[in-house]
## 1
Amino acid sequence: MSSTFGTLYRVTTFGESHGRGVGAIVDGYPPRVPLAEADIQPQLDRRRPGQSHLTTDRAETDRVTILSGVENGLTLGSPIAVLVANKDQKPSDYKEMQFVPRPSHADYTYQMKYGIRAASGGGRSSARETIARVAAGAMAEKFLHVICGVEIIAWVSAVGNISAPEVDIEKITRAEVDRTAVRCPHQNTASRMQKEIEAAKEEKDSIGGIITCVCRNLAAGWGEPVFDKMEAKLAQAMLSIPATKGFEIGSGFAGTRMRGSAHNDAFIKKGDRLGTRTNFSGGTQGGISNGEPIFFRVAFKPPATIGRTQETADFEGQAVALAAKGRHDPCVVPRAVPIVETMAALVLADFALRQKARG
């Protein structure tokens, strides 16, 4: 099983959904950077369950503890270990699922690959695994901001068939995003999205959505062609998040309907650097950051675990009716916003260190 991400900023995550806890070990964190649990906790609070009626009601505070690598408020340059304990485990909710693979979940594929699986809550395939990513990514956000001035902001731009108007990616703030429970900065659209999620929950069903993310103040030159291009690593990071089904950067699929004369980003002078008039490239060219904001979108499917009874089959192939008893989100995108931000931070932190290593 591959649980390590990154080249110089290396993150290894561990833990299962209904085990003792989940955590991460970060190797390669720069020394002498101010870091405390208070720098990590806000993103975990934005990700945690039970924060509104739009999410699962699993009651977890998700308090993070730094176990190593920090002394007197400064990083030492040695591996940093962080841990979040599981408090509200209910493995009994998943008793029936020991014998029945949940539709569109990872139960069947994990069993086929390993010959064993954590039947309670999905184990490593559970979204609870993302706690460790968020913790490690929040740490990456800290040094990216302190050392490089980088800002990463994500928001919900669509739920089902409801799409928000475009926002100014140069000005959008995290405070604007967090003004609504659904984490859409456009108030009227957020209200419609909320009603759509509430309707799915009431019907014991689920619904998908899209998260848009912008990364600002990057220097030109980050990215490692040809296989570790900026957009390639961002795509890998985003598609490793549970429930993701699509990734596009810049103009994305809409760009296929444009002519090159309209799509090309012409260069202009911006202060003391060369910039582009438009940004259909999404902040990268040739797999390398060009100094413009990097922006991309991530598609999330409807959560696989739903309260409705579903006709399916057990591992023996016998027809069964399955109604999930576990607690689950009717839509994952409100809680996935900090996951997208912190996974982007892991990618950018690694590229920042790799560029610095060039001297």
## 2
Amino acid sequence: MLRALTTAATGMIAQQLNIDVISNNLANVNTAGFKKVRVEFQDLLSQTLRTPGAQVSQGTYQPVGIQVGLGTRTSGTQKDFSEGTFKSTGGKLDVAIEGEGFFQIQLDDGSIAYTRDGSFKVDANGQFTTTDGYPVIPQVTLDQNVSEVVITSDGSVSVKKGSDVNMTTVGTFQLVKFPNPSGLLSMGKNLYTETTGSGSPIQGQAGQNGFGTTQQGFLEGSNVMVVEELINLIQAQRAFEANSRLITASDELLKTANRLS
């Protein structure tokens, strides 16, 4: 019965982590550029009581064996980078990536982070930044007398200054993509950093060589589906309850065995 107790305990631990991940997905249902996470499981080692194919007599082999699994564990958390729904904001500094790619953001230590959140702002120097003040790379700066900003699908940023009739190009968003975006490290603030698992970033221009296009006046919403997450939550809760009942049942059997001794 002790084996059943420990096995059921691994199931409860795994489902608790599953519920934690689901709750984080639901908490970020309105977070721009957020990508939902899925928990993946794998079984633990099995205790082999009889090996499949073992010889039981001369010329006779056991077609099946006896193996008892010892539970489950979390093998990883897979981030789903499928595209979220686009929301029209009308903001001249709001930019969504329709397709593959990330914006580049410079952190305080000079390193580069990546994001799908295009809710940009302009700081005191007229430079495009994130909500937390991190500048966008390559730098795009607007003058104080800018009267109109146009961001085209290829990432080009053009402005109209004062009473000028013609538009002037002041910069271009350079996008990056990764061989394995699921290997990126989430650091909060809608930012990701490169890891060995993600591979090195590949730079390119929006709309070319498989990169997505930039859409001004839109933001990419979270790709979390509330109904889907609620269904996952119910399944995780029922699995947790089933494992807890197994512990109760094992405890009752141990209690009965102790009474007989």
## 3
Amino acid sequence: MKLSIITVTYNNASGLQQTIKSIVKQSCKDFEYIVIDGASKDNSVDIIKQNEAYISKWVSEPDTGIYNAMNKAVRMASGDYCLFMNAGDELYSESTVEELYKVEFSEDFVEGIEYDQYRKYFSKPPKEPTLAFYLFVGNNRHQASLIKKQMLLKYPYDEKLRISSDLKFNVESIIIRNCSYRQINTVIAKYEGKGISRNVNHIDERNLIFKELFPQRVISDYMYLAFNYKCPFKLLIPLIRFFYKFKQ
């Protein structure tokens, strides 16, 4: 298994420096490192050039957004799996890549543990994501997800979406196409927690994604099931009886 680690960045020189530092410190050097810069106007390119000895491939040119840059990086990658470690994120420890290579896997989508530096907690992936997970809980963490390059090439990220295209890709891949998925107990990333996804309200994009991918009847069923799971009707019956007797 060969790993391609990908950093997408734009005008985030300090975050880029932080990410590259965590890459350079890896005890295992057997991986490819790709940096895609969107023609930053700060000193990001200077930082890239200063670390060019550790970067396999890089480019700095205008793009149409984060997913355009991510798709571009996938096309440049030569690894079996891609790991998106964007500017500001870090590999968890100096031995992270070494630990990943100790785990044998062949699944399409492999997800490990992430440490959220903003909220100060470890986020463990679901053992088996379901539609309910994506509707009511959250999304897979790309900083801790190893995705087969061939799958990313075949089903690239939707570049029309600004912030939620990875959600769409994950739902389509894991739920609709039923790709193979595996949870691993390796802590892969430190998530900065200050990126665009934390600062932009993307509920509209989420709604558009689920509306596009599923019939409304399916979504309505899940909403109904979620309500009954959180507030089972059988628990309301004693309350209804109590108030009925009270009124009498």
## 4
Amino acid sequence: MQWMPSGVRSMFDFAVLVLAVLFLTVEAKLILAARGRIPKDVRYIIVLGAQVRGKRVTDSLKRRLDVSYEYAVDHPDAVLIVSGGQGKDEEVSEASAMKEYLLERGISSDRIYMEECSSSTYENLKNSKEFIEDMEAKVGIATNDFHVFRAIHLAKKLGYKSVFGICAGTKAVLKPNYMVREFFAVCKGVLIGKL
């Protein structure tokens, strides 16, 4: 960096400092959002889709389903909206695989709505609104810890009035990668006006 003129070097150093502060601020928000409390009277639980291998749910998706299942068992008035379309390499839609998983665990089919058209978090939340009769009702969004902040803010932007994260964990070995990726996803969401 000695080859840089001092003014350019100062600007570069300042840009790096701003980026570092921005990164740490966003990461702190991701961590804090994952620690939010869930009220006892959530009426709808939207389970956000994630990759399916064949017809089987992956670890990330299983974690989302497990926290949703636990809440649904403890709160029998809550209904579940499983949301996710079918990717090119998936044998069934994510929603179909999720519904099957919940049925196998004993959740009644009349408590599960399927939204099978989405291919992004934004679409998951936008399309899941069709199943929500009262937008004033409390809605829980089941997703992995690193993803809660963005999911909640997207939902609010889409008109959800009372929304909460239902936080699932993440494999420790994968978490740093997801946290860095989520920083860029949040920045992109702000830049394109979705957050």
